Amino acid sequence: CQRCITPEVTGFDTLLPYLSLWRNMGRILAAKTRHDRLAGYYTDATETCIAQLKFADLIQGDAECIINYLVGIAILDIGLAQARDLARDPGMSSQELKKLSEALASVGPFAPGLIRAIKVEYKVVANTIDDFGKGDFGMDDLSSLSGSEPPSILKGKRIPGYFFQPNRTKLTFANLYRDMIANAPLYYAEMNLYDVEDVLGLGEGKLKLLTRPNAVGKILYAMLIPAFDSLLERKCRAECDVAATRLLLGIHSYKMNAGLLPDRLEALVPGFMDSVPTDPYDGLPFRYNPEKRIVYSVGKDGKDSGGSTVLLSGQETDSIQRRRWNAEDVVFKIDKEIEPVAAPLPSEGTPSDGR
Question: Which end of the chain is more exposed for a tag (fewer CB within 10 A), N or C?
């Protein structure tokens, strides 16, 4: 199919039972790619890997909600890990490397799928707000949502307009989602990121929150708003992963023809790719160090640390993928590196599981 068409998501009670099937398919395709590569069936391994990349791209490109988008990106992650293992395998032919590179050139972009998911998410939020507005909710219901007891004087009372202002709540959500949409096509360094909880005043105590105007709206913000910066950064990670994998394929193709590594990435153009990919974190060309035998991105901190793998967070015992994104630079080794067959994927369930 040309598109991934899933049932419409209309509310946070909409079940997404197909996610488990997607997750399993992604893992099976990754395992089959690895099996065929280790068995020396490089043509089969390449075709299976390409099928997984296309499968993941269909999911993220036509995401019906944020959790769909994140599952598509996660399936893409494990497919790209297998593509990098194929690129590094000396048994791969130049023809198979070219097939993989051409398939990767058509993967993405990732901003349109994210924007589509955000728009659907707002529709879901707006429906939820309407349901609250139509329901016979009382202060006791509100306290069950917030986890705090309301003041005794308000117990057993219906929620007055002071505590729930549906239009004001919708407007706040709409403005936040508009900000996310405006940021989605940008490089990470260009994004206007901020702490949503601070902006909405969600850091104050729950009991105090219950006495504020539009308390229900603020509780809904706390329950339903997605992680603003992490969602946008996840899009940048996907772009970075694809760019690095394409470069590894180009570098190994060049080495197969020339007998040595290129001295700079521009040597891959136009023979192995149309242009040097840009770093999605700062918008500059992707970095390359032939002496260290690595390609790398500057990562979230925006600083070029020369391909440093010094961890800014996490532990040395973490997986390669986790360490890669927690280090000073996002580094991909040109030579053999054992990458996982399957990374943790978002769980199935409802749209809010992506929070």
Answer: N
Least confident of 13-22, 102-111, 330-339: 330-339
How far does Cα 213 stand from its chain's mean position? 35
Q: pTM for this structure?
A: 0.86
Rounded distance between C-alpha atoms, residue 144 and residue 8, angstroms = 29
**Two tokens, residue 183:** 């940021």
**Nearest to residue 312, comparing CAs of 304, 321, 320, 301?**
301
**Half-sphere exposure in the Cβ direction for 30 (13 Å, CA):** 23
Of the candidates 79, 35, 84, the one whose C-alpha atom is nearest the C-alpha of residue 54 is: 79
Collapsing DSSP to helix, strand or coil, 257 comes out as helix
User: How many angstroms separate the Cα of 176 from the Cα of each of 122, 173, 260?
Assistant: 10, 5, 50
Chain centroid to CA 283 = 18
Whether the bond between 151 and the residue before it is cis, its omega within 30 degrees of 0, is no
